[in-house]
Write a structure and sequence with these properties.
- The protein is mainly beta and 363 residues long.
- The chain is 8% helix and 47% strand.
- It is built from three helices and 31 strands.
- Strands 12, 13, 14, 15, 17, 18, 20, 21, 22, 23, 26 and 27 form a twelve-stranded antiparallel beta sheet that branches. Strands 6, 7, 8, 9, 10, 11, 16, 19, 24 and 25 form a ten-stranded antiparallel beta sheet that branches. It has a four-stranded antiparallel beta sheet with strand order 29-28-31-30, with no helix packed on it.
- The longest helix is centred in the first third of the chain and has 19 residues, at 6-24.
Length: 363
């Protein structure tokens, strides 16, 4: 998450207050036909526009502020001034099928789900290649029961900011990649309880059965993996409920975040759960496994979506969440991904949200 200091927060609040007061004063003067961007005053999370001039010659401005980045700079591809982030899939040259380049990251995807490394995720010269592998049941004894491998017969589709495969791992198990401003969200979507088989008895007997989605990963030369605050030795199988950092010689380039699984019962404080990540080496290959407990999947309200994203920054964690009221039902979670505040209508009732967030390393 982007580091924000109290000084930054106070300055932002003052600017917002000034803009609000300005908007309440009857405007007399010239209003421009279209706002004029003052890009030398933009930041990653703010946009300033000149919107007019008063009768006595004072310029009028509007300020658009967000919590997460809405603008980017990428000198390595010629973007030297703050520019609007507008991710979107477009067709591209073979062997790739689609790409998106209108953000700090670039990403390319192949349409054939079984064509090896089908995702290329880059920030400048630093890249990570992904190959979808088996969807399994596993347990505390590291026993495996394979559910399916990626299916060559899966039906591919693409929209403006999302693409994916229906029945990617067999009937009712869909895979999707969704573009974010700083992230590539990998969704495993399960429409119904019948989307998954019941784990075999030996998996249940082995303790704490989990659903495991595996990817082969291949970072470019010079990228090291850090997990639980330490450099990974590329030998030891390592688990985390935090995130995996991909670092070059200077800093972290991007992150693999722990998966969040969410069901469809908006009234339940257990509607979402945080999963875990596992790094392991097999031969010369590095696997990253995204895991979610079977105990949660067995009681979830379907459809269920499991989202293990790649991101340029660390996002929400167990210190972010919300407190809500739904009719007479009170609920609280510190693992939800909601960013709502105020009233959120769900007919015929409504949520009343209070959201909370922790900013790390605030000084």
């Amino acid at each position: 998450m982007k580091i924000i200091t109290p000084k930054t927060i106070i300055t932002s609040l003052i600017l917002i207050a000034l803009c609000w007061v300005s908007s309440q004063v009857p405007f007399r003067g010239v209003t421009y036909a279209a706002p004029s961007a003052v890009k030398d005053k933009w930041t990653a999370t703010s946009r300033l526009y000149e919107i007019g001039v008063t009768a006595d010659g004072r310029k009028q401005f509007s300020l658009d502020v967000t919590i997460g980045p809405q603008n980017y700079q990428a000198p390595w591809k010629g973007v030297t001034e703050w520019t609007e982030i507008t991710p979107g899939w477009t067709t591209t040259a073979s062997p790739w099928s689609y790409r998106s380049v209108q953000a700090e990251y670039d990403v390319r995807v192949k349409q054939d789900l079984t064509a090896g490394q089908i995702v290329e995720w880059c920030r400048g010269p630093d890249c990570l290649y992904l190959q979808p592998m088996a969807l399994n049941w596993t347990n505390n004894l590291d026993q495996i029961a394979q559910i399916a491998m990626p299916d060559s017969a899966a039906s591919f589709w693409a929209s403006e900011t999302a693409l994916g495969w229906t029945n990617a791992y067999g009937t009712g198990r869909n895979l999707e990649f969704q573009l974010g401003n700083t992230s590539l969200n990998e969704w495993l979507k399960l429409p119904s309880p019948s989307s998954l088989p019941v784990p075999p008895q030996y998996i249940l007997d082995g303790g704490q059965p989990q659903l495991e989605l595996n990817f082969l990963i291949a970072p470019t030369a010079g990228i090291e993996l850090w997990v639980n605050g330490a450099l990974w030795d590329k030998k030891t199988t390592t688990d985390t409920i935090n995130y995996v950092e991909f670092r070059n010689a200077d800093s972290a380039v991007f992150y693999a975040l722990t998966p969040t699984a969410c069901g469809s019962d908006l009234t339940s404080e257990t509607n979402c759960i945080q999963g875990s990540l596992r790094l392991k080496k097999s031969g010369t290959s590095i696997y990253i496994s995204k895991r979610v407990p079977y105990s949660w999947l067995a009681q979830a309200v379907y459809p269920v979506e499991i989202d293990p994203p790649l991101d340029l920054q660390v996002g929400a964690n167990a210190d972010d969440g919300f407190r809500g009221l739904y009719g007479s039902n009170k609920l609280f979670t510190s693992s939800g991904g909601n960013a709502d505040a105020g009233r959120y209508f769900v007919s015929p009732n409504q949520f009343i949200y209070d959201a909370f967030y922790r900013f790390t390393n605030v000084t």
